[in-house]
Amino acid sequence: MKRSLFTPGITALEYARRRSKLAARLPKGAIAVIAASDIKYRSGAVFYEFHQDSNFFYLTGFNEPEALALIGKGETEDEHIFRLYVRPKDIKAERWDGARSGLQAAVDVFNADETGDINSIQSLLPSLISSASEIYTDIATSKSNPSSTFNRLFHSQPSKSTEDSFTKLLSSSSSLRPLKPHLNALRSLKSPSEIASMRLAGQRSGRAITNAMRRSWTREKDLAAYLDYEFKNQGCDGAAYMPVIAGGANALSIHYVRNDELLKGDEMVLVDAGGEVGGYITDITRTWPVSGKFSTAQRDLYEAILSVQRTCISLCRADAGVSLDKLHSIAEDKLRDNLTSLGFDLSGYNAMESLFPHHLSHYIGLDVHDTPGLSRKEKLQAGQCVTIEPGIYVEDEERWPVHFRGLGIRIEDSVAVQEDAPLVLTTEAVKEVVDIEALRD
């Protein structure tokens, strides 16, 4: 096993250990079946940039479509059997679509114990499935999505007996189990190498956002284009997600991504954007005055939110014994106190929910919303990575103080949970009022 970097920041040995940890969680004779992502098309033959399925990438490091991985327990608890089925080398296809790794690389580079042509999966898979005591997978097996690689390959001209046997096995309540809970448990606790990759993404993205704050902007799309360039210029592989570049009242829409309106000098701009490194993302939100200088109302509301964010970040440590839901509750209480001191009347129905409509936090990692389905009720553990993102969104309604109406402010950092202290992954993105204003002095 090569100890050199296999994908940016992660060694081949770490990928092997991930597979071993998954296999150790499975019963004797069970296998896990994980499929690569499909190529997705915008229209006709125009495709989107390929993005690998995060679970598949986490276990294999293989970054091509039309692939299938099978992982089973080996002879001992520390061993696993890894089968990887991929596209074969094809000179004609590669001239159009770029190089393929091929079958030999599946063994020599990606350390598979066995490999095979993904186009032969009809004949290869049923015997492996039928011999397994249990099958752990999240692959949808119905024909409702005939365009998926898995369904296309398996259901294209199958023999009736083969298809019936496969469908029966995978739909059997006695043998089919969900894989996601096991992968969530593994992926939620980041290794030092994963945290290092996320720190790099945070550092480089933070610098890009701070550089954006130094400049004057008149259009949302220009700021969006600059960040897309600057993430790469700072060393990220690219943007981690569709950014929010929301000037003025556009910030009241949590997921505003049109990014096509003018920026006005007396308003603020909310930027929710981040880059990725080696597949690992960072998630940052900063809100600053378009002019570079805060008005009194802007500063007062901003400071009210920032103080809450500082408090919640300080609790992102295992020995604090808090969950994400508990942190959200703490944030709500402190925001309520701060807003009341600014003259907000929060006695009305759903007042806080209207002003703070989203959760304080979510898990991050290979995905922006990592390990979907993982409970926010469990206490934080060292190795988990989360966001802390309090925000207040003041609609133009008579019940709110007039000088705050139309303001939408969110402040978000990515944080790694440690045993006795938080590690903020995104400190290079400045957020103190004095630091923001000093950028244009």
Q: Would you spell out the secondary-structure blueprint of this structure?
A:
Layout: E1 5-7, E2 10-11, H1 12-25, E3 31-35, E4 41-43, E5 46-47, H2 54-60, E6 68-73, E7 80-86, H3 91-97, H4 102-108, E8 114-117, H5 121-130, E9 135-137, H6 149-155, H7 160-171, E10 176-177, H8 180-188, H9 192-213, H10 220-233, E11 238-239, E12 244-247, E13 268-273, E14 275-277, E15 280-281, E16 284-289, H11 296-314, H12 324-341, H13 351-355, E17 385-388, E18 391-393, E19 408-410, E20 413-417, E21 422-424, H14 433-438
Parallel strand pairs: 3-9, 7-8, 9-10
Antiparallel strand pairs: 1-2, 3-6, 4-5, 6-7, 11-14, 12-13, 13-16, 14-15, 17-20, 18-19, 20-21
Helix pairs in contact: 5-7, 9-10, 11-12
Number of helices: 14
Distance between the termini: 54 Å
Average pLDDT, all residues: 92
Overall morphology: globular
Percent of residues in helices:
25-40%
Gyration radius (Cα, Å) is: 24 Å
Assembly state (oligomeric): single chain
Low-confidence stretches: 157-166
What spatial order of strands do you see in the largest sheet?
A: 8-7-6-3-9-10
Structural class: alpha+beta
* Percent range for β-strand residues: 15-25%
Number of strand elements: 21
**Major sheet:** 6 strands, mixed
